[in-house]
Each structure stands twice: as structure tokens, then as C-alpha cells.
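Input (structure):
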């Protein structure tokens, strides 16, 4: 019994923070997004978005935002949301869905799918920090605007 308790303590103190720090990406399936990411690239090859644009990215809230150009008239907006994605997905594909546009701003809406997948708040926050660090490493002047999560009905029902 002591060995089990000892292992649980060691795991929570040493291994859990390590998994958060590493982003736990080794077990993540990025290949499931390849079709959508490739579609963005094909679209860009024939109709490239302008540099210094405003990129909107994240999960379905962004991907399903069909009136983005009308909602931001006169602004060079690029929608690169892909539904069901988690923060680690957007970070992983940043070189393909953010960097090419050299955006002045990135509006980012993600994290809900992460929570529904069972990730802790701490892991989601660590993944967001890694996203911001990844973007700023390549695009240090780019402003990141986080669009907050909405309350989920299921979460409210459980309260």
C-alpha cells in the first residue's frame, strides 16, 4: 500500500508537471487535420491572403464564422479555424496556418475541446503559453488576442 501511495505522490509531483511542460504531444494525432490544413494551402496557392493581415484561428467557433469579412469590413482577415482542434493542434500547424500571412494580429479561440477531452486547466494554460511563445518566436511583433471560452451548458447543468 505504501508503494502505491509513494508512486502516486511521485507521479503527481514530478511526472504531471513534466507532461504539461512537454505539451503531451507525443500521443496526439495531428494527422487527422491534414485534409483541412492542405485545403487551406491549396486555397492560398490560388488566392493568397495579404501579408500583415488579421488571422483568426482555433476551433469550430472560428472555423464556422462565415461572416468574418463582413464583420470586420476593410480589414484583411484570414479564417484559419478548424473545428474540433485543440490548442496543441493550432500550435503544431502554426507554420502552415499562421506564419505564411505574417499577421499583425492573431485572434485565437481554443481550449474548450481541450477541456472536454479531459485536459486539466493547468495543461490548457500551459498549452496556451506554448502557443504564444511559438508565435512570438517567429513573429515577435504579432499581437495575440484570446477570445474567451463561453460557458458550456453541460458544465452549468452539472453545477
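Output (sequence):
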Amino acid at each position: 500500500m505504501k508503494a502505491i501511495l509513494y508512486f502516486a505522490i511521485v507521479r503527481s509531483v514530478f511526472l504531471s508537471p513534466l507532461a504539461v511542460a512537454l505539451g503531451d504531444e507525443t500521443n496526439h494525432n495531428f494527422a487527422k487535420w491534414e485534409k483541412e490544413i492542405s485545403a487551406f494551402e491549396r486555397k492560398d496557392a490560388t488566392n493568397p491572403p495579404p501579408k500583415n493581415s488579421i488571422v483568426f484561428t482555433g476551433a469550430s467557433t472560428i472555423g464556422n464564422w462565415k461572416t468574418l469579412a463582413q464583420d470586420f469590413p476593410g480589414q484583411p482577415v484570414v479564417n484559419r479555424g478548424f473545428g474540433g482542434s485543440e490548442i496543441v493542434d493550432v500550435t503544431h500547424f502554426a507554420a502552415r496556418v499562421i506564419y505564411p500571412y505574417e499577421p499583425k494580429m492573431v485572434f485565437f479561440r481554443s481550449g474548450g475541446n481541450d477541456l472536454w477531452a479531459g485536459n486539466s486547466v493547468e495543461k490548457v494554460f500551459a498549452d496556451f503559453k506554448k502557443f504564444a511563445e511559438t508565435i512570438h518566436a517567429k513573429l515577435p511583433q504579432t499581437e495575440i488576442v484570446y477570445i474567451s471560452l463561453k460557458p458550456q451548458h453541460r458544465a452549468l447543468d452539472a453545477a
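Notes: The first strand starts at residue 54 and ends at 58. Confidence is low (pLDDT under 50) at residues 1-23.
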